[in-house]
Design brief:
The complex is a heterodimer of chains A (112) and B (114). Chain A has 112 residues and is mainly β. Helices cover 0% and strands 50% of the residues of chain A. Helix content of chain B is 4%, strand content 46%. Chain B is mainly beta and 114 residues long.
Chain lengths: 112, 114
């Protein structure tokens, strides 16, 4: 039981490049989330998916898109990366929309 | 949401109890106290939460004062693997769990030493 897994662990992009961050969970959770964490700051919610087939914007959705591919997988796409998107990105999941969230190990993204 | 105040850092000897304090003097009646930790380079990990009563699970105990203005997280037998930043968060249950903000603040950096 791996929990929440994220790929890649590290990524360096140039401004304007695109990429997709992958997240998968094997806990049969219904809800999944994407956060970013900047140095010295708390987590900020980018997008979430309360259940398979639904996605909603969080606190800082601009510059990102998401896809809930199936119950297990929730991807985050940066269409045109900007230096302001340099951050650590965490994916999380919870059994139901109101349950405790479990986090993945994070993806460290640098945009030059 | 209520604001929390935690000491920036604490040390604890391995095998001893680690007592991490948190002040939340403006907590509202519907707000819970949550504790998370973040081990270096890893994602946040939920530890425990409570409303009024003291709580215990396999990881820790949470002691909330009667006036609910402060709380203490207790790790009964700290190990080196407990070295992490510990965050105290107060939030309404609905807001915390509705894909919602986890406002971590600065937390307490706990160093467990041999």
């Amino acid at each position: 039981n791996a929990g929440v897994t994220q790929t890649p662990k590290f990524q360096v992009l140039k401004t304007g490049q695109s990429m997709t961050l992958q997240c998968a969970q094997d806990m049969n959770h219904n809800s999944m989330y994407w956060y970013r964490q900047d140095p010295g700051m708390g987590l900020r919610l980018i997008y979430y998916s309360a259940s398979e087939g639904t996605t909603d914007k969080g606190e800082v959705p601009n510059g990102y898109n998401v896809s809930r591919l199936n119950k297990r997988e929730f991807s985050l796409r940066l269409e045109s990366a900007a230096p302001s998107q340099t951050s650590v990105y965490f994916c999380a999941s919870s059994l139901a929309f109101k349950d405790t969230q479990y986090f993945g190990p994070g993806t460290r993204l640098t945009v030059l | 949401d209520a604001k929390t105040t935690q000491p920036p850092s604490m040390d604890c000897a391995e095998g001893r109890a680690a007592n991490l304090p948190c002040n939340h003097s403006t907590i509202s009646g519907n707000e819970y106290v949550y504790w998370y930790r973040q081990i270096h380079s890893q994602g946040p990990q939920y530890i425990i939460h409570g409303l009024k009563n003291n709580e215990t699970n396999e990881m820790a105990s949470l002691i909330i004062t009667e006036d609910r203005k402060s709380s203490t997280l207790i790790l009964p037998h700290a190990t080196l693997r407990d070295t992490a930043v510990y965050y105290c968060i107060v939030s309404p249950f609905e807001a915390h769990n509705q894909g919602g903000k986890l406002i971590f603040g600065q937390g307490t950096e706990l160093s467990v030493k041999p």
